[in-house]
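pinging the channel bc i need a second pair of eyes. not urgent but kinda urgent?? the chain im working w is below, pasted from the shared doc
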Amino acid sequence: MPGTVRYAVDRAARALIAAIPLVVSRPAIADDDEPPAATPYRPTVSTPAALSAPHWLEGEFGGLLILDRSSGELSHRASAPYALKYAFTDDWGIRIIGEGIVHASDDGQRQTGFGDTGLVAKRRFAADEASAFGLELGALFPTTRPALHLGSGKTDYSVNGIYSVDALGWHADLNVIGTRLGATEQALSRWQGTGALALSHPLSEQWSAGGEFSGTRQHGTASTAQFLGSLAFAARRDLVFDFGAIRRLNRATPTWQAFAGATVVIGRVD
């Protein structure tokens, strides 16, 4: 394994190990209450219309490694994405998202630092017992140090339309996302569109499998396309682990991505 890749894997592993105490324990505020089932959003690009359990703080922690040979040379990016989710009701909620740490190597240059931070407001619209619509409004703030060149450098705004449905033992999430980028090169449009369709199916009482097709389109640059495959294991009703990989479907997309992480109900907050 090349030294730079080994270094990136080590960084991601350290981030995951550091998150273990948060994942396997809950604050004392939840001790007298039976925790609800976790509602994983990770690891897919798409999110479901459902929110996490009202009045319970839920966290998602993981590691992501991106390897790319598109330019003929190997570049990599390792990060520790996270999300904190809180629902006020079954239909209204917010979440904070970001990357706890990022390490990137390209053309022999290494950069390490914290990534950008986002805030998302969510509204669910129930259609019937098996389906629902959702709407998310988000902003991604440039909290990384400019010298690291790891983020956009400006605030990005996004709107996400969601449709989720359960049918024939399968769960499906369809997302259509529009993002207004705060900073782009002169020849590129400020608007980027993203589409994602995810399907999941239980394999047993604890195991489930998922797959997702997703891609982006932006005027002035090549469109991206990828396929994600994942497995999830419910260690407890309030703790779900996941792992998997992403393979590019065209040359404009990073060659491979690998990920692992967990979704955990942290505690009740009234």
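so Residues 3-268 form a domain with the Porin fold (CATH 2.40.160.40). and The chain has a mean pLDDT of 88. — does that match what u expected or am i reading it wrong
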